Amino acid sequence: MSTNPSTTPSRKPGTVAFASYIGTTIEWYDFFIYGIAATLVFSTQFFPEFSDLGGTLAALATFAVGFIARPIGGILMGHFGDRVGRKSMLVISLLTMGIATSLIGLLPTYETIGVWAPILLVVLRLAQGVGVGGEWAGAVLMAVEHAPPKKRSLYGAFPQLGLPSGILLSQLVYLVLTSTLAEGAFADWGWRIPFLISAALIVVGLVIRLRIEESDDFQKVQQAGKVEKLPIVEAFRTTPLQLLIGSLASIAAPALGYLVSVYMVSYGTEQLGLPNTTMLWTIVAVSVPWIVMVLVSGIAGDRFGRKRTFVAGAALAVVWAFPMFWLVDTGTVLGIFTGLLVATVANSVMSGPQPALITGMFPVRLRYSGSSVSYQVGSIVGGGIVPMLATTLYAQFGSTVALSVLVAVIALISLTAILVASKRILGGHGDAAKTEPAREPAAR
Predict the structure, then answer these.
(1) What is the span of the domain harbouring residue 390?
(2) Which of 82, 119, 272, 299 falls 20 to 30 Å from 363 in CA-CA distance?
(3) Helices (H), 252-384
(4) Over the stretch 118-164, which tens digit does the pLDDT of each residue have?
(5) Sequence-distant (≥ 6) Cβ neighbours of residue 13 within 8 angstroms
(6) Residue 50, by phi and psi: left (phi above 0), alpha (psi -120 to 50) or beta?
(7) Is residue 52 a contact partner of residue 244, using CB atoms and an 8 Å limit?
(8) Per the structure, how many domains does the chain have?
(9) SS3 label, residue 10
């Protein structure tokens, strides 16, 4: 291997964590520009035959399709991630997402090719879902498995920074476009620009990711000859409780994240009558402290325990469910900002320790598959179904009380799942930050 430091793959924890962060930021940017476009223009560009409500629901349904595909990506890349390595899957997931996103930016609309437009949109959205489905576990495993033993929560939080960073980047791009382009120009062609920007971002992400080295934990499993032939099957056979707890625990954080970043844009413009730019700027404003809080909660997970930290965030989400919408419904910038800010704090306190918490439930040889399935199943409910369900509930009841109940129930599910989980399920480290899980715990 070359000794040139500019070409030698890196095993330094900080470098690997940064590479995971950059990659997940690009992946989430791709994922969220779709969500924003779905709320702003897709109803008219791809579903013009529907009513206003029907078009919005149809556009959000295509957004939800990405979540349905995420477990498929998690299973596929989890299988090969546990068999051939984490790094190669990260490269594949980034390419899958980037190509699909760029093609959406080139896709003809309903006016041009008729029903084929929404069909192709759904196909490309499925590809996006497969890409991001294999991304999360690979990114967090590279960060966690390279991290010093007592800092796994902190380093595992770096890929989680990609969520608010991707939101921030996507919102800023749309803000620039909606501020500089006439409404008609944005609807006709301006919405395509964020998708085409993805092509350049993917090149940057690949250059960074190709410079990191495979995790030491996985290489030890390879050297010991313990690689599973069917890791996903083995995960369901030997760690079913871990999969259940991990899936339930993974619902609340994405539910809050997607409500803030996707649904609130639609709610603020359609129900409160606010300009798009007001909602976009507000979400940009909450994204900056959101990023900081994820890091703080990662540190807290190492200091006070991953389980305790996660529980604090989930409890805050339950308590804040009603005040959040009360404040948003004031229609004032300060009220909306405050309501969403505390919601992102709750999200952050759960998200920071979540990677180390979830990955620590599974032995190394099953860790990619188990973590992927847990996180993606939780995300289907929390991120894919919740924005659609929120739109439907508000249309039926005409009040945010139903939305508050929805948020509280979802957060309570995740809170209960982690509270009842034993130390055996959590890998023996959920409560004590100083206790490091075994590199390869016995199958349970």
Answers:
(1) 13-208+220-420
(2) 299
(3) 252-258, 264-270, 276-304, 306-328, 333-351, 354-359, 367-379
(4) 888 888 988 988 888 888 888 888 888 888 878 899 999 999 998 88
(5) 143, 146, 147, 148, 151, 155
(6) beta
(7) no
(8) 1
(9) strand
**Amino acid of residue 343:** A
- If one counts every other C-beta atom within 10 angstroms of the C-beta of residue 273, the result is 8
Residues 347 and 290: beta-carbon distance below 8 Å: yes
Residue 41 falls inside a structural domain: yes
Tell me, yes or no, whether 426 lies in a domain: no
Q: What is the end-to-end Cα distance of the chain in Å, rounded?
A: 39
CB 366 within 8 A of CB 231: yes
Cβ(69)–Cβ(31) under 8 Å?
no
Residue 161, domain member (yes or no): yes
- pLDDT one-digit tens code per residue, 8-44: 444 577 788 888 888 888 878 887 788 778 777 777 7
Which tens digit of pLDDT belongs to each residue from 269-319? 888 888 878 888 898 899 899 999 999 999 999 999 999 999 999 999 999
Closest CA to 52 of 261, 265, 270: 270
Residue 431 lies inside a defined structural domain of this protein: no
What CATH number does residue 322 fall under?
1.20.1250.20
Q: Is residue 434 over pLDDT 50?
A: no
Choose among 5, 67, 10, 435: nearest CA to 210.
10
Nearest to residue 266, comparing CAs of 114, 312, 258, 431? 258
Alpha-carbon distances, residue 279 vs 84, 317, 342, 345 (angstroms): 44, 21, 16, 18
